[in-house]
Write a structure and sequence with these properties.
By secondary structure, the protein is α/β, with parallel strands linked by helices. Among the domains are: 292 residues, FAD/NAD(P)-binding domain (3-Layer(bba) Sandwich); 64 residues, no CATH class. It is 32% helix and 16% strand. The chain is built from 18 helices and 23 strands. The protein has a 5-stranded parallel sheet, with helices on one face. Strand 4 and strand 5 form a beta hairpin. The protein is globular and about 70 Å long. Bound molecules: ligand NA7. Ligand NA7 binds next to helix 6.
């Protein structure tokens, strides 16, 4: 490649929220870093997921970067829960402000990263065959970038346009009056369904597993609120630091099981009427851990679906049976249930009439063929480890990350993998996840501290020691024990039925809470990074 790249200090894979901030911090250290990105511009998740209705379930003003006073002062979120086009505009604004694109190369997907042990050098190979080398490799891949299509035969046969929601065409697609079929009923599908249902001629939803969902209550930010938010950023971010998920919501200290039905239900009614994730992560503290408390909440939530969906048989189909409320990532919705009261919407339960194949005309189930003009696959992602599995990452002695992690990732603090020197991960497995940019900023800041330490001490090479890795993996497993969440299949527990070898649950996040995670990583830094070996 071009000459200046020969002197690189680091390569960062991914120009999403993580890669952008990592580049900014590395520049601050005087390092020369190059970002490689498959998309044609910055944005990551918000670049790729352009499907109708894509937006935050996090309060916008708690989601943006906190590191720049100038950005906080200048940027105005139009809505409390930002829509994808505004979020992408925000990230472009940040990229412009810090002139980030200068060190980014777009339209190239990294296919391999090999470590040369003797030279302490990572060489990445891109899909056009080009290579690039640097001593340090940062994976800023995003936990939800490896989208997965349904493993249904005949996908190539369909004659009309068909898209995964994470590959929605940039120019958009006119769905007005069209017969549209959508597979999936996760957070993405719910946003998409409720948005397109008004415009399409007919919408048919193919549901395998219904999810619990609760109202988002989004609205525009008034000028008065805008001024108030800007004056309170420090307080907002401090609040996010104090909660387990880095959202503004924190579990209520009371237990559902110790209150009267009237007290419980009054609280749930209040949460149901409020914006955001309060009803999920701001619920009574026993709801996500005690099966009895969860059953009470689940029962109450079932009633809400019945109230909102006119046909009791459809309400029944939309009610989850195999998991309790909040034990999977809770999608937030805006009129989702009411969509099923419309004449132009059909819900197909594919447990009763399974999909046999995709045909030229549409989708054939065991009872009939459904004809469509457009097909939408809202079928999710190979979460967290999927993006790592898709790159051939090879360390010293030909050790492959993909093989190492097949059963369970082996990391230290979720930021380095055992046996892979100078490979720094932002939001890899085993880190706390919640309000993602809050997590990202902490991880990048911590990694920046590690790089600073290496520079101060003349180290060129870092890797985690075996024993601390074993301790950390054990701790991660222990933190997930007892959570109802850990007993349910979802991308969060590493299950994707469309991906071979990904049918078994794994612990892919740190579920001891963001506060405890921060305490752990800060202790390692304060102790002089003794859990790592340096050269
Ligand atoms: P999810 O939550 O993984 O949802 C994917 C949906 O697609 C889910 O309803 C799946 O049903 C369904 N699916 C997947 N494959 C198939 C096949 N082969 N047949 C039928 N149905 C299928 O992904 P999302 O994109 O909605 O959300 C991901 C995250 O993005 C979300 O948590 C937010 O953080 C943002 P299943 O449940 O597997 O039966």
């Amino acid at each position: 490649m071009d000459q200046p790249d020969a002197a690189l200090d680091a390569i960062i894979i991914g120009a999403g929220i993580s890669g952008m901030y990592m580049l900014h911090r590395m520049r601050g250290l005087g390092m020369r870093a190059r970002v490689i990105e498959a998309g044609t511009d910055v944005g990551g998740t918000w670049y790729w997921n352009r499907y109708p209705g894509a937006r935050f379930d996090s309060e916008s003003w708690s989601y943006g970067y906190s590191f720049s006073e100038e950005v906080l002062r200048e940027w105005e979120w139009p809505e409390h829960f930002s829509a994808q086009p505004d979020t992408l505009r925000y990230l472009e604004f940040v990229a412009d402000k810090f002139d980030l694109r200068r060190d980014m190369r777009f339209g190239r997907r990294v296919t391999a990263a090999h470590f040369d042990d003797a030279r302490t050098l990572w060489t990445v190979t891109m899909d056009d065959g080009a290579t690039l080398s640097a001593p340090i490799l940062v994976t800023a891949l995003g936990p939800l970038s490896a989208f997965t299509l349904p493993n249904i035969p005949g996908r190539e046969d369909f004659r009309g346009p068909a898209f995964h929601t994470a590959r929605w065409p940039r120019e958009g697609i006119d769905l007005r009056g069209k017969r549209v079929g959508i597979i999936g009923t996760g957070a993405t599908a719910i946003q998409c369904i409720q948005t397109i249902a008004q415009d399409v001629g007919h919408l048919t939803v193919f549901q395998r597993t219904p999810n619990w969902a609760a109202p988002l209550h989004n609205r525009r930010i008034t000028p008065e609120e805008q001024a108030d938010i800007k004056s309170r950023y420090a307080e907002i971010f401090e609040r996010c630091r104090q909660t387990d998920t880095c959202f503004i919501h924190q579990a209520d200290p009371r237990k559902a099981t110790e209150l009267s039905a009237a007290e419980r239900e009054a609280f749930w009614e209040k949460l149901y009427g409020e914006p955001g994730f309060g009803i999920w992560v701001g619920n009574f503290r026993d709801v996500l851990v005690d099966p009895k408390a969860n059953a009470l909440m689940t029962d109450w939530a079932r009633g809400k679906i019945r109230q909102r969906v006119k046909d009791p048989a459809i309400a029944d189909l939309l009610t989850p049976r195999n998991h309790g409320f909040g034990t999977r990532r809770l999608p937030l919705e805006s009129g989702y249930y009411e969509v099923y009261n419309q004449d132009n919407v059909t819900l197909v339960d594919i447990n009763t009439t399974p999909i046999e194949r995709i045909t030229e005309r549409g989708i054939r189930c065991t009872d009939r063929e459904h004809a469509f003009d457009v097909l939408i696959y809202a079928t999710g992602f190979d979460g967290v480890t999927g993006p790592y599995d898709r790159i051939d990452i090879t360390g010293p002695g030909g050790r492959r990350l993909r093989d190492d992690w097949q059963a369970m990732p082996r990391t230290l603090l979720g930021m380095m993998a055992e046996g892979f020197p100078n490979l720094l991960m932002v939001l890899g497995p085993h880190t706390a996840r919640g309000n993602i940019p809050r997590n990202i900023e902490e991880l990048v800041d911590w990694l920046t501290g590690l790089l600073q330490f290496m520079r101060d001490n003349g180290h060129h090479r870092v890797e985690p020691r075996a024993e601390p890795v074993a301790d950390w993996v054990r701790h991660v497993e222990q933190a997930a024990e007892g959570l109802l969440f850990s007993q349910v299949d979802s991308w969060q527990t590493g299950v994707n039925r469309n991906v071979e070898g990904r049918q078994v649950r794994r612990t892919l996040g740190y579920y001891g809470g963001a506060v405890r995670f921060r305490r752990k990583i800060e202790a390692v830094a304060a102790g002089g990074y003794q859990e790592f070996a340096f050269r």
